[in-house]
Amino acid sequence: MILKNALIYIDGSLRKGALLIHNGTIKSVVNEKSKEDLKKIRSHNEDGIEIDCGKRMVLPGIIDIHSHLRDMGQSEKETFLTGTLAAAFSGITTVFNMPNTIPPAINAYQVKKWMEKAQNNIYVNVGFIAGVPREFNFDEVISIIDLGVIGFKIYPIGSLNEIDWLNYLNVQKILNISSKLQIPIFIHPDWPLSFEEKNEIYENYTLEQFPTLELHNNLYPVSMEAKYVNFVLENYYKIIVDLDLSPKDYPIVHFCHISCKNSYSLIQNALKMNNNLKISFEITPHHLFLTNKIKLSNPNYGKVLPPLRDEEHSLYLFKELKEGHISLIGTDHAPHTLEDKGQGYLDAPSGFPGFETYPLTLLDKVCRSELSLERFVKITSENPAKIFNLKNKGFIKEGYDADLIIVDKIPEYPIKSKKFKTKAKFSPYEDYKTTVKIWKVFLRGNEVNTEKSEPMGKIIRMKNINV
Length: 467
Description:
With 467 residues, the protein is α/β, with parallel strands linked by helices.
């Protein structure tokens, strides 16, 4: 197959050219001005298919490092099929899946069952992040790693495994495991308020009736996110000193969905002090573009953890993104049913779908010249491929997988959640204006954003050299 008359993103800029794709791999990238080059790749185009891209942008497929594909006891919210189809139609060709399944994926049996459920039921590539086995069972940890997981996830305010992640000894244990096995630990940073503190906030809410999303922000404040980030960093330093670790053996930590300048600054200061630290973090699109002041038909549609923050945080984080200080984006795609979200504030779960609004909001900033295309490609494709060692992904180069997204810039139109492929037909981005249309999406050279698409995604299995 040949993609011709395209504006191909190569090494930081768009170049007019053509791609030859064979057996799922990019075989040649040529300058279309050279008739000889085009003639040459046509002679090697075995299936004879040529697609005229009409001078549209061809970008590497998006890699989303944080999602909840549900299924496994929560198929009413989402299934592997519906979640990955939503990703495919969005230009997301690889996703990482989190372990808060029912039952939770905290042992090798459950992780294997989880992966088997995904087999032949995914439209894009999926990597799996496991929960930590109960009592830090080391043999179980090894068995889970042998299955090829990306890493382990910890939730301090909703532990999957009865491990208290507010206890510094437990945090040091998981960091020690990360150091020994060189496996990433994904951390949801949040330190819970006390029952008394929460009750006082809620009582004030019932008296004053301030907006629900502001209440949610007050119950899970920025200070508590920063407190947990600082708690992890302190124990990270302690592990390094106590075990006299060389940089190659430092624990690998990834902070999920950093939502405020408080915790962002703590991480950046740590990295400036020691650039050998194996620490990364992600920002979500909704913490860049939405605040707790948005008006929604149902405020619970914007209820998420961490909460939508005050505008000062979103403006600050977007500025840092534009200036090149943020390396990773994750959607935290977290679908729920309309019935779930229709409950009262206390009963409605946190989270909303994120796949189908991600490129429409972030790429829109590129089309409006508010964000550079180079920055977009780095944070959505190149950096996640590099940081998480995804082989042959994230770049448009010869020998790389033909995971590609073709983008059209069109007149402004509103986002409508009823058109989503996910089961979760609601969004805090309802009627958000975008100028982006995802024209075609390819996974290993196969078009995956059509109604005739088949689930051809593969499970990404990591090889851990220390096990």
